Amino acid sequence: MREGLNQMDFVIAAYAIGVVGTLAMVVWAWLAMRKAEARRDETRRHETRHNEASLDETRRP
Amino acid sequence: MHGFANPKRFLNIARWLTTLLLVSGLVLAGGALAWGFFMVPPDRLMGDTVRILFLHVPAAWLGMGGWSAIAMSSLVFLVWRHPLAALAARGAAVPGMIFTAICLVTGSIWGRPTWGTWWVWDGRLTSMLVLLFLYVGYIALAQAVSRDGGSSRIPAIFGLVGAINIPIINRSVVWWNSLHQPASITMGKSAIDSTFLIPLLIAVAGFSLLFGGIVLARMRTLLADIQTEARLRRKAMG
């Protein structure tokens, strides 16, 4: 051990960076996925409603 | 494999597998890190800094594993034109880059008390830094191709060519003089005592499960974006 450094300070710094980085990545990937899938489902619902409305109009005498 | 390339079938499997991988990965990796931090005794030579092993080694393994996944998916995309293979390659890029960065930062923090320096330009550290730059280049290229409607073959070729760096990283401690120690775990052999080896293997398994879960989440995000864009384009064309 050089310069009387406290080894546990380095261990804590490494764990803090590693754990925070990993958790941030998991949360970001999960939230981005939920948002993208909600947006897709919304456009799908909108398209279905639009198609049904067009179909009703063609059936109207 | 062709059956799995169907987006609908992929989503049916990915919906439950993403959560399973993320939860089991968090439990295993969290448990292994707690074991390494609180329960493992200090090493005879490295003292308490040996605890960084349980974070640094899985990060290094997944940094290299991420690019291997990009290269394999790119090969599948170029040969069989599976669209999901291109998504798998793009899905592995961000987690691979983050784990490479974690490996470099934790290695640098480990180097200061053990080597007396934060950084040396030796083969292992430099080739790992090159891997980080390759990830940044791949992500930028894939985003540009996706935004401007270019060919997905360009990032796939980049992914394949970049794989040259993986054996260089692996053999760097053998080919060049390095402050970095040689491999402690090889096929069927380990120079690490079981006191450290067991939590290390659990940490590697846990982080690998997390990596798999993140790749699936990224693939689902990219697939949903493509499907939304296609619907909006159809709507705009009337």
From TrEMBL, chain A:
It comes from Allopontixanthobacter confluentis. Residues 37-61 are annotated as: Disordered. The chain crosses the membrane at residues 12-31. The lineage of its organism: Bacteria, Pseudomonadati, Pseudomonadota, Alphaproteobacteria, Sphingomonadales. The keyword Membrane applies. The keyword Transmembrane helix applies. This is Heme exporter protein D. Keywords: Membrane, Transmembrane, Transmembrane helix.
Automatic annotation (TrEMBL), chain B:
It is found in: Cell inner membrane; Membrane. The keyword Transport applies. InterPro entries: Cyt_c_assembly, Cyt_c_biogenesis_CcmC, Cyt_c_biogenesis_CcsA/CcmC. The keyword Phosphoprotein does not apply. It comes from the Bacteria. One of its GO terms (biological process) is cytochrome complex assembly. Residues 16-180 form the Cytochrome c assembly protein domain. It is a multi-pass membrane protein. Its main location: membrane. GO terms for cellular component: plasma membrane. Belongs to the CcmC/CycZ/HelC family. Required for the export of heme to the periplasm for the biogenesis of c-type cytochromes. This is Heme exporter protein C. It comes from Allopontixanthobacter confluentis. The lineage of its organism: Bacteria, Pseudomonadati, Pseudomonadota, Alphaproteobacteria, Sphingomonadales. The gene is ccmC.
